[in-house]
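[job 4471] stage=fold_predict status=RUNNING
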Amino acid sequence: TNAYILKKNLGEKVFSNDVHTLLDFEGPVMTDSGAYQLLIYKNVDMTPEEAVAIQEGLRSDISVVLDVPTGWDVSRGHAKWTVEETIKRAELTIRISKKKHTLWTGPIQGGRYLDLVKYSAERMAGMDFDIHALGSPTPVMEQYLFEVLFDMIYAAKSNIPANRPLHLFGAGHPMVFPLVVALGCDTFDSAAYALFARRDKYLSEGGTMSAGELEYLPCDCPICSSHTAKELRMTTKKDRELLLARHNLHVCLAEIKRIKQAILDGRLWDLLRSRSLSHPALGRAIKKFRQIQDELSSNTPSTKGKGLFILGEVDIYRPEVTTHVIKLRENYAKPEEAETLLLMPAPEKRPYHSFLTTSRPKAALLDQLSSGLLHLSFYSPVFGVVPSEIDEIYPLSQHELVDIGGKEAQDRMEKEIARYIEQNGYKTVILVHDAKRWTKTLIRSCALASSRSGKSFLLKTAADPWSEETLDSVCGLLEQRGEPR
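[job 4471] inference complete, writing structure tokens
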């Protein structure tokens, strides 16, 4: 609820009333300070000192500094002023607050100026706040600028202590909830459910619809279960607004529960991917996770109780996948005795090395593998390189996928293969090139990486990489190894 509005309605009584009693609610209550009204009306009849006294008098569980929101369409000079003024008010709040019954929230401002958001977050992080909150995102979300929202949240989240929750002001549409949670927002608030209802808008987790144009209500909340679309249209404007507000709130709460369960199931990325298909702006935003894959990987569990679904190119940047890529890059070393690297395309069957029991490879190939002189690794558009001895480690065998063969996936695969070749001290590299699936740039990439690192490079191009004919040819290449191509 809003401390400023309570002050306007209660006057001096606001200093002696418990907010839980006023709301008839025993759960945790967060009070905003009136900064949103300051943004809209340019002035509020309350000082930062009063904001502290009122919220502590209300015994609010979570209180907020009376900050100065940056807004969106403002000059850099004004944005800088809002950041500095908010810092001054935050310092004052920390100095005079008693912190007996409330957790204090340090607001982060800066708007679209990401360097100011970063600076604001760093300054707030240096103060004794319990929670932080990112301000001024509402215009960004209203314009579907989700890539900008991504950058704003990341600039804030990456510059505050990891043990302090991040609140997002004004996030009220359920379609953005999975995105902001995936970026590290722990809580958010908004009156959007009521504001949309006032405009006759019907919310869903996939977007916004005009209630007057609906023939069916695609929801099973209590409102939609007890009304038809026609009945909803026939109600008075006031009653319809109330019904829509309740529906919109149900949709928001349902999506929050869905997110919580997805987190417990290790499926948050799957939910995020699903929501990203509902609007192109969300689809563009999810692709930005590739920019922070190192941070995501460092906080991703090594194993999960369920396998992965790889459904498109965007999934090559999901945290479980990038964790393998990064660990291989930073921690892996080839078997010490291995002299020749045999790079084969990853087969459909998993674990990948099981092809050895079904493809009838020649004895020469099996002998080389068993001797340790030949090292078998697989290349994959999802995982880059998968050494055969670790191909049962999660999630290398624990995934289902559709065929991924776009340019972005191939470019990334080639980059990881080249790095793998150059990092490991083989004498010879043999590439079995899947001519039906991958372009010749894969050949050039492997050849250049081999040349740069002083290795011989041998090539077998095949339409069927797993046929006996191809494996026979590989045996022939083994006899040539060590001779520059």
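[job 4471] summary: The chain has a mean pLDDT of 91.
[job 4471] exit 0
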